[in-house]
Amino acid sequence: LTKAELLQQMNRLEESTATLDTIVMDLLVNPPDLHAHYERILACALAAGGHTDAARTHYERSRRIYSALSNVPGTMELSRCWDLATSQAAAPAPNAEDGPTRVGDAARARTILQRASALMLHAARPELLAAEIVDMLTETECVRGAAAIARDNGGQVHLLASSGEAPSATTPPSGIKRIAVGVDCDRTVELLLDPKPDVESAATLNAITILLATVHDRERARAEREERLTLWPIEDVQTDDGRAVVSGHMREVMTFARRIATTTVSVLITGESGTGKEIVARAIHSFSDRAEKPFIPFNCTAIPHEMLESQLFGHRRGSFTGADRDNPGLIRSAREGTLFLDEVGELGLDLQPKLLRFLESGEICPLGDPTPFTVDVRIVAATNSNLEQLVRDGRFREDLFYRLNVIRLRIAPLRERRDEIPGLVNYFVGRSAEEFRKGAVRLAEETMEYLLLYTWPGNVRQLHNELRRMVALAERDSVLTPGQLSDEILKAKPASERRVNGSEIVVPLHEKLVPTLSKIECEMVRAALREHKGKVDAAAKALGISRKGLYLKRQRLGL
After folding, report:
1. Alpha-carbon torsion angle 535, 215, 78, 51, nearest 10
2. Total Cβ atoms within 10 A of residue 498
3. Among the three residues 459, 476, 493, which one is the final residue of a domain in this structure?
4. Cβ neighbours for 443, distance < 8 A, ≥ 6 positions apart
5. pLDDT over 50 at 273, yes or no
6. What pLDDT digit, counting tens, does each position of 230-244 carry?
7. Which pLDDT score, from 0 to 100, does residue 480 have?
8. I need a labelling partner for 64 at 20 to 30 A (CA). Which of 53, 174, 288, 345 fits?
9. CA 157 to chain centre
10. What single string gives the DSSP state of each residue in 177-213?
11. Residues 99 and 197 grouped into a single domain
12. Judgement on whether residues 274 and 387 belong to the same structural domain of the protein
């Protein structure tokens, strides 16, 4: 912005405009002071070019933002730059002499677009939003008077902006239209409007109401998205099915998967059913140089035993009854890619030597084909069985076990990584709400407690199905309560986990330390803020920490 302003003051307007273009998106995520600075540059550039009316629009918008923020240095700098630009202004740009209707319409259209973008930009700042709307309503001449007010918790009213015969902020007369804008720094911001009685004015006010509702929806969605990311950070795994994992044990697993992805050694993934073994296998594939090649998952228990060899290695036409055409087999179909063999412990002893040969030499020999040939495929195997015990029982070849078990990845069951449950819940609820078009469905805090305490024998798969069912049956934009949970989950909550009284909580000694400490911190911070009626300094003192320390804890805990 400083560079653009210097270029504008040097009368290098094209370069200044090009510089502004590079920072437009930054206005969305930076403080509103930058937007005021941006409007100041535009105002001065237009004034220097003789476009007085357009320049005045940007000047007033910049002034409103600085005023709402009580930014005195900004206001003074705006006045200085404006005076300098207007004193050096060129002759007024042609307008009325050259197509007055067309030029006037174009100017009004530009102003409307700029005002709409300003409303969207100030969605999180109700005081700025209200001041901008008052100015818009004044120009549309659909009200006799308008006022933007902010009412604090003590009932005191502060006038933010006004125009015309502004309604009284303390005792508004009957017939005055009230529109809630939002809450900013514990102050409720409202618009008090005295509308004109004609139909067009009423339609204009209705349009403003609809636009304001849209702004609120956008801001609510943004706030909820940021809250979810703050409470439960999610790291997406770049897989074709769009699945995701969260921080904790699975992030460690994924970090290790990324490290081994570039190697060519065999990987054995172990863990209970539903823990996410295929997600890890897909991650290994997507992190590797084979990512653009096929990833083919195959469950060794999905088809009859006698058909396994044909499915894996392929067959030639006529090699057995019913083989009416050639079948390349899964290994050849995954050429240069990755073949994921789930439940590899269920392979029969007659098929295990052929898989071992392929792992050692890369050669396969389809049924009915006399000549073996080489195929470049990476094998990632998985099992929920104890392969060591199967080896001891003589049901799994020891040499094949060692060939598969070069790198071993164990995925812990969900009951051993409860700290991941909130993140998974957030992800699955959001995805299901989008799938079933349920809007902003969210989870009640007590419902989350039940989910955290359940043992989840079916692991992540069971959690996903439970939440998907709840969202599918829920009303749009509703809160998921404990009553919507399955009976087995409701029965699983032990009495010891319930609140003892308003100032005590009970926590289990066998749970993970980090999530338990977070729960204790969360409840203590909530209690302190509740006891001191939201006063941050008093709450921080009661907790024995600094104001900054309390702010950081609230940010981390999502409070």
Report:
1. -170
2. 11
3. 493
4. 425, 426, 429, 451, 479, 480
5. yes
6. 333 334 433 334 445
7. 93
8. 174
9. 37
10. EEEEEEEETTEEEEEEEEE-SSHHHHHHHHHHHHHHH
11. no
12. yes
